[in-house]
Design a protein that fits this description.
CATH architecture of one domain: Sandwich
Mean pLDDT: 88
Distance between the termini: 61 Å
Number of strands: 52
Radius of gyration: 32 Å
CATH class of one domain: Mainly Beta
Largest sheet: 22 strands, antiparallel, barrel
CATH superfamily of one domain: Carboxypeptidase-like, regulatory domain
CATH topology of one domain: Immunoglobulin-like
Strand content: over 45%
Helix content: under 10%
Length: 986
């Protein structure tokens, strides 16, 4: 019997060995070009591979097994193994419903999504020549607002997802990099290393992050290795940047300046030709210096990236090295970055897999000097009279000549903006490392455990110096140095179970634990008095050290949470998802530390039932979700001690007074704690429709959202008998954000050699303060029930009295008055956020040539032109230069103009009002890219795999009524950028 059984088992083994094949083949598109990185899986198993650079693949499978071929943008194909060689052709799927997308703590398909999620791919980002990818996101995702801080190289952008959800707490979305919370600056990430960026907008998508997800989540996914032969890629870009000026903003030249201020003297009853008045200004001037032109220059942009990507069935890797160098359009500014990335994934066996990710980054940035003061390159240039010389002359007082520069400049408090760029500096240097370790264990093909550990560390050194030879406001040279370090530890552990019940039901369950800890330290030192002009390190100062010149600080917080999610689908057309999370945060006291958040989402692809096999209606999917998420981001400019609002805080000072003349060291409680503080909460409803029509030539989505923010942090006044002026509390304040988002993609023309793809998106947005403990009035804003939180609050300007040339205003009732009454007669006159924003992108492809361009638009918001107020003060800040618009001033009775008459040191000039509030709506040609790829058969003759060229332009043209250099950035205008790039693979 044993012998028979042994013979039977041997025959069965030989049969199985014979039945198992090494299946191989080639995968191409309909154009017969190979497809790289196609995923091939044996259905029902974890056995898989991917196609190499030539489209070839090899996989071990049994006769009768079903192979599943899937690729981004192509229809998934299933094929039964009946031969050792299987060559296949994949067809493009314009609906991309089976596309795999990264979601919170996992992956899904577009078809199975129940929430609102937008995907931005590396191809879309790479079209735009940017050192910082955040600016490149403008217009690529509906519902995502990108607030470009300024055009200074290396500067980042701010994000808002579906409006502003808080009054005093943070409004920024949570950033997650490869599954781990990321607290670093986004300029640390090389755009070339990014695979995709997913924007989670609604509660169903984001609430599993619970805390910190109230303002949405941005998932950044870096490139990973592939099962293919190693491919090396070199990508280079070089070009130039220049200042833009859509409305020809300029200052007065010398002749205009002299005429203007001579008239101011006459209007004050003085003789401009009498030197004894103290304001003698001859008509003929020796100099006509364009200080603003001296501050701007043509900058440069250079970027070099090298990467390697490859692997086999057990190990895959991606490694990248990049260098970016950008000179700004303002003299003395620039940015340099060196970064390295390594992503390594390895399957130890069928049970265990491990992944290691690491990003190293070095940044060096030369910033604007004294952005808010007159010593800056731009701020100084705007204020200096054109009649002043840059360099000292024989007539200049030798005591006011430093390093050859003229500091005898009364019009700018002795500051020389050209000398600033040469003799002073403002430099930031930073190093960072971000490392992640992933471990996975498959108990069974359906049951999996995952662990993620991430550690981020960054160190910053900021140095600002005023050189000894710079003679304005210096004490033999000034130097300030700040050292700052921060670190974040993030741990996530989870269990996942996925199963199929019968033929129609699929169930997925995931549960886990997450904790994040953040710490930071800062030390600042200021010194004066240096022996040598070019040696101004704080350690070389000879002046005394004052205790007020040294300061240090510490900050930190920790969050821990438990989360769970259930996914269910019926016949792959009806989907249900529910999530729950409970978080505790160190921001709050022990009695109110924990908060519970959850969401539910539903979607149904009803086109499969109502319009089966229709060529006109290919996809109709209805989505709906509702849920809650929390906000504990209390570190804002509006709040002190954000992470410690519930604790007793003490101040130690040396200057506590015991009487008007005597001071002693002491300690005092510095803040009124509140141990009852709790989470701010966002409740969000989202209803969406996804569609694909006309054989998927037209596809898109429509979303409506309603977002309510409650339990908002607020500062209420306290009786002075408590020793404090105010206290932070959770109030009855409530915000409502509502809006519509529409996204469309179409192929108006699609042939074998030519295609035209059009993409468009638009968002309509509104906000209202529904409840408020009390009305709050700021210097330029107001919070009122029934109004927005970002409303401007100014007195209304009514033009110029034709008889006198004096400015006119409106009182609170709308009556014209001649006296400025800025405190009592203010009104709501505009808003900082737009009502509508979006973009239109067209991409044309003819054989190996492509052309794409994006137009971005922003409508319905205003901006206060602070520079215009400073430079159009009707003689208020004499003898500084003036905006050329002042040439349209009132000069005689009967003149009709919007600019009042000029008077020397005019006390009523340049007052805050709607005179300087402008419509900041704009239309911008955001990007144009022309590309060409040399045919593959030609390239391979020289031993390479790919050579392509790209000519790109960014911020090429802007149409706006805003009079300054740029409607989005006043301190440093956004530049126009033109680059030429070459991509080479081998």
């Amino acid at each position: 019997m044993k012998v028979k059984l042994l013979i039977f088992m041997t025959i069965l083994s030989l049969y199985n060995l014979k039945a198992q094949n090494q299946v191989q083949g080639k995968i191409t598109g309909i154009d017969q070009l190979p497809l790289i990185g196609v995923t091939i899986l044996v259905q029902g198993t974890n056995t898989g591979t991917s196609s190499d650079f030539d489209g070839n693949y090899s996989i071990r499978a049994n006769t009768g097994d079903v192979l599943v071929y899937s690729y981004l943008g192509y229809k998934t194909k299933l094929l039964t193994v009946n031969s050792n060689i299987l060559n296949i052709v994949l067809l493009e799927d314009l609906s991309e419903l089976d596309e795999v997308v990264v979601v919170a703590f996992g992956t899904s398909t577009k078809k199975a999504l129940t929430g609102a999620l937008e995907v931005v791919t590396t191809e879309e980002i790479s079209k735009q020549p940017q050192a910082n990818f955040t600016n490149a996101l403008q217009g690529l995702a509906p519902g995502l607002q990108v607030f470009e801080g300024n055009g200074q190289p290396g500067s980042g952008a701010g994000f808002r997802i579906r409006g502003i959800g808080s009054l005093l707490a943070g409004a920024d979305p949570l950033i997650v990099l490869d599954g781990a919370v990321f607290n670093g600056g986004l300029s640390q990430i090389n755009p070339n290393d990014i695979e995709s960026i997913n924007v989670l907008k609604d509660a169903a998508s984001a609430s599993i992050y619970g805390s910190r997800a109230a303002n949405g989540v941005i998932l950044i996914n870096l490139k990973k290795g592939r099962n293919q032969k190693t491919v090396f890629t070199i990508n280079t870009e070089a070009g130039f940047t220049e200042n833009t000026n859509p409305n020809d903003f300029r200052l007065m030249n010398a002749a205009e300046y002299v005429e203007y201020y001579r008239e101011a003297l006459i209007n004050n009853g003085r003789n401009p030709d009498d030197p004894s008045t103290g304001f003698y200004l001859p008509i003929n001037q020796q100099f006509d210096t364009d200080w603003v032109n001296e501050a701007f220059k043509t900058g440069s942009f250079k970027k070099y990236d090298f990467s390697a990507r490859g692997g086999n069935e057990s190990t895959s890797f991606y490694a990248g090295l990049g260098y970016t160098d950008q000179e700004g359009t303002v003299v003395g500014t620039g940015f340099e970055r060196i970064n390295g990335t390594l992503n390594l994934d390895h399957n130890l066996n069928d049970k265990i897999d491990i992944g290691v990710k690491m990003q190293l980054n070095y940044r060096n940035r030369d910033n604007l000097i004294s952005e808010g003061g007159r010593s800056g390159q731009l701020s100084g240039a705007f204020n200096t009279a054109p009649t002043e010389s840059i360099f000292g002359t024989p007539e200049t007082d030798p005591a006011l000549v430093g390093a050859g520069f003229n500091f005898d400049i009364p019009s700018n408090a002795q500051h020389n903006s050209v000398a600033t760029a040469v003799l002073n500096s403002n430099n930031s240097e930073s190093w960072s490392v971000n490392s992640t370790l992933n471990l996975g264990y498959n108990f069974t093909p359906k049951f999996r455990a995952e662990v993620l550990g991430n550690y981020y560390y960054a160190s910053f050194i900021n140095k600002e110096t005023i050189g000894k030879a710079y003679l304005a406001e210096t004490e033999d040279g000034n130097s300030e140095e700040a050292r700052f370090s921060e670190n974040t530890f993030n741990f996530v552990g989870s269990l996942a179970y996925n199963t199929t019940i019968g033929e129609d039901h699929k169930l997925g369950i995931k549960a886990g634990f997450e904790t994040t800890r953040f710490r930071s330290n800062a030390l600042e030192v200021a010194r004066r008095g240096f022996t040598f002009a070019n040696l101004n390190d704080v350690g070389l100062a000879s002046g005394p050290i004052d205790p007020s010149d040294v300061s240090s600080s510490f900050d930190g917080n920790a969050v821990a949470g438990f989360f769970g999610r259930v996914n269910y689908s019926y016949k792959n057309k009806a989907f249900l998802e529910g999530s729950l999370r409970r978080d505790g945060a160190s921001n709050f006291g022990p009695d109110s530390r924990w908060g519970t958040f959850g969401a539910v989402g539903l979607s149904y692809v009803f086109s499969e039932d109502l319009f089966p096999n229709s060529e006109w209606i290919n996809n109709l999917k209805l989505r709906g979700s509702y849920g809650s998420s929390g906000n504990n981001d209390f570190i804002t400019d509006d709040l002190d001690f954000g992470n410690f609002l519930w604790r007793d805080l003490f101040a130690l000072e040396k200057d506590f007074a015991i009487n008007p003349t005597d001071f002693l060291p002491g300690i005092t409680v510095s803040f009124a704690p509140n141990r009852s503080l709790r989470w701010e909460k966002n409740l969000q409803l989202d209803v969406g429709l996804d569609f694909g029509l006309f054989n998927n030539r037209l596809s898109g989505s429509i979303d409506y959202f309603r977002r309510v923010s409650e339990d908002l942090l607020f500062e209420l006044p306290l009786s002075l008998t408590t020793g404090f002026e105010k206290q932070a509390v959770n109030s009855n304040a409530e915000l409502l954000n509502t809006g519509f988002e529409i996204s469309l993609s179409a192929y108006p023309v699609r042939t074998d050699n030519f295609s035209w793809r059009a993409d468009a998106n638009i968002a309509f947005y509104d906000q209202e303060i529904q409840q408020l403990p009390e009305e709050v009035v700021f210097s330029d804003r107001i919070w009122q029930e029934g109004e927005r939180s970002d409303n401007f609050f100014y007195q209304r300007y009514a033009g110029v009295d034709p008889a006198t040339g004096d400015p006119l205003y409106l009182d609170v009732d709308g009556n014209v008055i001649s006296d400025y009454d800025g405190e009592q007669s203010r009104a709501i006159v505009g808003q900082r956020s737009p009502d509508t924003y979006g973009s239109v992108t067209n991409t044309f492809t003819y054989k190996d040539i492509s052309l794409s361009f994006m137009v971005f638009f922003n409508e319905g918001n205003q901006e206060y032109f602070n520079l215009g107020e400073t430079l159009n003060g009707d003689g208020q800040n004499f003898p500084a230069n003036q905006w050329a618009i002042a040439l349209n001033r009132w000069q005689q009775p009967g003149d009709i103009t919007n600019v009042p008459r000029v008077r020397l040191n005019n006390p009523n000039g340049g007052l805050e009002s709607t005179r300087f509030l402008y419509d900041a709506s704009y239309v911008r040609l955001q990007n144009v890219t022309l590309g060409y790829a040399i045919p593959r058969e030609v390239v391979r003759n020289i031993g390479l795999e790919n050579i392509s060229f790209r000519l790109s332009g960014q911020n090429l043209w802007t149409l706006t009524d805003f009079p300054g250099y740029d409607p989005t950035s006043e301190s440093y205008p956004l530049p126009r950028t033109i680059t030429f790039g070459v991509n080479l693979s081998f």
